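re: ur question from yesterday

yeah so i grabbed the chain u mentioned. its 186 aa long if i counted rite. heres the sequnce exactly as i have it in my notes:
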Amino acid sequence: MTSVRDALLAVAAGADAIGVVLASPSPRAVTPEVAREIFAAVSPFVTTVAVTSTDRPEDVPALLFSRPDAVQVPGDLELPPHAGVRVIRMLSPGDALRDDCDAVIVDNSHGTGRAFDPEYARACVAASPVPVILAGGLTPGNVADAILAVRPHAVDVCSGVEAAPGIKDERLVRAFVKICRMMDNP
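ran it thru and got these structure tokens back, copy pasting raw so excuse formatting
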């Protein structure tokens, strides 16, 4: 999310979580102040996630400044003890499973729309000691098949529901969430 408007749109559509990109080279990146404003605007019953691809420890304070419920980080980036956030570690094909986190996100797309690797994703779901979130190339047109094929704990979408980089399309967001909800209650 890059704006309060888009975050509220996703929440109104029924999203369980919203994320913002911080400390990353991305057209979707926002400042810690904007992230904090977005997170403050959503219901306390929606999980907020600060997303980064940085592996620099000096970027961690900016992530935590936004007051997220969870932080999505790559590889071995460590968070301070007692940071008060859940940790989601990013995995790409070839990476070993992790158990030093609250969940993993299988994604080699990183917001580019590149499709996930179904074999790797299924293997992660089958063997992971923590919940697996699926991302990468998901759209309203393919998310049902992806959920049926992989059976992740959750799915994450970014470019697949955008009108332009960083700008959500209300129709696509609503369609995506509706399909996910139908998959929860077949």
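noticed a couple things. The helical segments are 4-13, 32-41, 60-65, 118-127, 143-150, 170-184. also The chain is about 30% helix and 20% strand.
anyway ttyl
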